[in-house]
């Protein structure tokens, strides 16, 4: 990300959150504290600029998209019982579940307040309403994805297609909305808006598949979350689904026991890692992540060349080539 | 409420929610099932019509405001551990906490999707963005109110002013936003929009004070929620604050014990009821509710006479004269 973006985003966050002295403000500040990759705001900014828009015009929306993302993390951590996030106590661990539920809601409302604020930075109102539609639908999709993930918990017979539907809702929807709303607010043409929407969808899919892999290719200190969380929560991830599909009968039975929650977490994590290794599920997952990253790359072809387009292309590579 | 409104609102809800076959859709349908008073959508519709707007134009926003309200109820019931709502199992009791958290989020996003849909019903985009700003800020205020309520839990020395701040955020903000956004989307003048905003604020304040009273003047079967919930959750309500202020030393000590959670719930509820009776806290609270209802009534004076204005005036009376 260009240094300028980070500084601008941090300033905008500071400006908006410094004043409040109530617990809710402190809780939101804790949730939003630096440490995140700021992927979504950067996508929004570069999508806007790539179609000819101005950074200053869409900055409130960029801050908003991060708030929407962080809201989902805060609520996810309650659901998954994860006690740390980005190497710090999760919001519900630091402030209790009540405040964490309310802070997540507040961050969602704040996302939409930010969108309305684009009036003051010179975005025409028809573009704001079009972005509102895109962002609100993406948020609902995100919830459908989270609900579907809970529904599928432990269901090892889940198909790759169902998994892909789930992560496109849970993760790619907000990536897509960040790019699409950035292009809308940046006053791009219909063709460019469509291309950036598809780019966001492919990028988000690649990103989530790679994220699922990190539990088996990286350590907790690097990813900043408990690597065993996926196993403990019986969460379906691509390596597990692929391993189950190509495992022998004995390993299948082991995966079934683990995903039924019948194995102690540490043992489960170790055993799952071994089966995933034996079945070559990591390279198979990685190949699928790369295919989506390449598709994201190709989606950018219709855009005029620019530093923003170059950065977006680089992000597609980075999404599948990172260790946290 | 005119019969026409109820039918139109129900049709709009049906149209929007019938299609989905995933768990999340079922959870949202459970949360939104009939039984509510539909106060907020009716306020939005009548505010729009009172300033010259059309019902059909603002109907999506009216459905949206109910979704925002229901979202807060779903999350409130988790926070308060209330197992029933409107005489049926609370969402988290029926579907588990995970789905209830996600469904609340989904309903918030749906609220904003509804607002964007007013494009299709002919509301000009500048009005939609203005309403977006009002609704998003109100949602954030609602969260501030919920957070403040948690912060103040059991703090019997809370002043009436702090209590009023809390309920204006927690309850009146969304009443206000329903009226104000209705008037904005109905293309009212600045003066009428301001008057309806103030009306909503006074009405919501009156409504919440009366709601607090119901625990001591009505029974659980009528209100549809556990009347002892307020005591069990050590929630500050106006009768408790007023009772504490005018109680003798012995009763003060009893209230302190109860609000510290040191008394079994059934005993606590009975004792609190007796102290509230002795200190005349019910009529004192009722007087404050009525003053706000009268102020709401007066706020309507600048509007041209119409059936909608008459109904809004009647709602101000109804808010403080109901047993559920």
UniProtKB/TrEMBL annotation, chains A, B:
The protein's matches in SUPFAM superfamilies, at most eight in alphabetical order, are given as:
Terpenoid synthases
Q: Which GO-annotated molecular functions does the record name?
A: (2E,6E)-farnesyl diphosphate synthase activity; dimethylallyltranstransferase activity; geranylgeranyl diphosphate synthase activity; metal ion binding
Q: Does the keyword Metal-binding apply?
A: yes
**Tell me, which GO biological process terms does this entry list?**
isoprenoid biosynthetic process
The UniProt keyword set, sorted, is: Magnesium, Metal-binding, Transferase
Which Pfam family is an annotated match for this chain, by its short name?
polyprenyl_synt
Enzyme Commission code(s) on record: 2.5.1.1, 2.5.1.10, 2.5.1.29
Q: Which domain of life is it from?
A: Bacteria
Instruction: Identify which top EC class this enzyme belongs to.
Output: transferase
Q: Read off the InterPro entries from this record.
A: Isoprenoid_synthase_dom_sf (IPR008949), Polyprenyl_synt (IPR000092), Polyprenyl_synt_CS (IPR033749)
In the UniProt record, does the keyword Magnesium occur?
Answer: yes
- Family in the record: Belongs to the FPP/GGPP synthase family.
Give the protein's recorded name: Geranylgeranyl diphosphate synthase type I
Gene source species = Sphaerisporangium rubeum
């Amino acid at each position: 990300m260009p240094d300028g973006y980070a500084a601008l985003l941090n300033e905008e966050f500071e400006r908006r959150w410094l004043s409040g002295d109530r617990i809710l403000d402190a809780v939101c500040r804790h949730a939003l504290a630096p440490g995140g990759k700021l992927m979504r705001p950067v996508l929004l900014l570069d999508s806007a600029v790539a179609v000819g828009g101005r950074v200053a015009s869409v900055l409130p929306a960029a801050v908003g998209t991060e708030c929407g993302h962080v809201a989902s993390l805060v609520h996810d951590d309650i659901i998954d019982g994860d006690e740390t996030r980005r190497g710090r106590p999760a919001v519900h661990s630091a402030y209790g579940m009540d405040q964490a539920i309310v802070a997540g809601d507040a961050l969602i409302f704040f996302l939409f307040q930010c969108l309305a604020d684009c009036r003051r930075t010179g975005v025409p109102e028809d573009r704001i309403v079009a972005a509102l539609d895109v962002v609100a639908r993406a948020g609902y999709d995100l919830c459908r994805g989270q609900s579907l993930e809970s529904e599928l918990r432990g269901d090892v017979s889940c198909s790759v297609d169902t998994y892909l539907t789930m992560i496109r809702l849970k993760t790619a929807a907000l990536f897509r909305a960040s790019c699409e709303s950035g292009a809308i607010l940046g006053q791009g043409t219909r063709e460019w808006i469509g291309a950036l929407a598809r780019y966001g969808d492919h990028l988000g899919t690649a990103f989530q598949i790679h994220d699922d892999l990190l539990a088996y290719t990286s350590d907790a200190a690097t990813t900043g979350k408990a690597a065993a969380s996926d196993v403990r929560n019986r969460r379906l991830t691509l390596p597990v689904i692929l391993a189950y599909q190509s495992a022998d009968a004995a390993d299948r039975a082991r995966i079934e026991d683990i995903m039924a929650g019948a194995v102690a977490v540490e043992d489960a994590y170790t055993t799952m890692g071994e089966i995933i290794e034996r079945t070559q599920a990591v390279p198979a997952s990685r190949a699928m992540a790369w295919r989506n990253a390449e598709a994201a790359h190709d989606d950018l072809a219709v855009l005029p060349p620019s530093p923003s387009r170059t950065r977006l292309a680089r992000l597609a590579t980075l999404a599948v080539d990172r260790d946290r």
